[in-house]
Write a structure and sequence with these properties.
about 270 residues; mainly alpha; Four Helix Bundle (Hemerythrin (Met), subunit A); about 0% strand
Amino acid sequence: MHKIAILPTLLTLGNAVCGFASVAYASRIRLEGGVPESDNNFYLLLSALLILGAMVFDSLDGYVARLSKSSSEFGGQLDSLCDAISFGLAPAFLLLCLSRDWNRTVIQQAIAVVAALYLACAVLRLARFNLENSPDPASHKRFKGLPSPAAAGCVATLVILRAGVSSSWTGIDAELINNFVQVWAPVGTFLVALLMVSNFSYPHFTKQLVRRRRRFSVIVQAVCFLALVALTREVALFALFWAYALHAPLRALIFRGMHRGSVATHHPRLD
């Protein structure tokens, strides 16, 4: 009989509970029955924040497992099952809730297809991760394909951006942001779904920040960066997650263009 590390397991289950709560609160959104729009927005925002809460639990369970040297295959399998709920099902359901902004049935049906695709890609991403990686969290230095927590964060921060920009000091027009989120939510979710099952390489930023020693100047820069994030909150969260998600394919496109340019320079056409 296998021994189970209690604290890392509880943290992993906390991840699943946050995902379940996210779906539960998002399901309270009603389009009929005279429900105030403020209540619907509150449930939508809370659902998105719970996805970010699941990310905190997901980071802590691996960190505690490394500290206690209790990494195991059981923990890895349990982590993926919980991730499927919090970073697969919950963001997909959240996207369905965002489809209420569209009045056209055809568009709502198309968004439902994108949500199903996102869920399928998240599950495939987690299954591939289990096959290609060892149970030791210390061995995960880079990811093949966009990590499912980052993909879920991209969807969640769209909701947070829409809900919080009206109270932000940045002066961004709330209606403009609402229109942007309405259009970008299905398109962006489709992109991150494909990125999860792609072969693009993504760095493990949290592990690099925690394990490596940095110069004092880097620490000062990090503190200033965190202060900027605290001031701009919704905009900063959106920018961070989407910059991480899109930097790998954009870098690949830039390098490919540079490579083609160098080949054309060294091998000019003969007319």
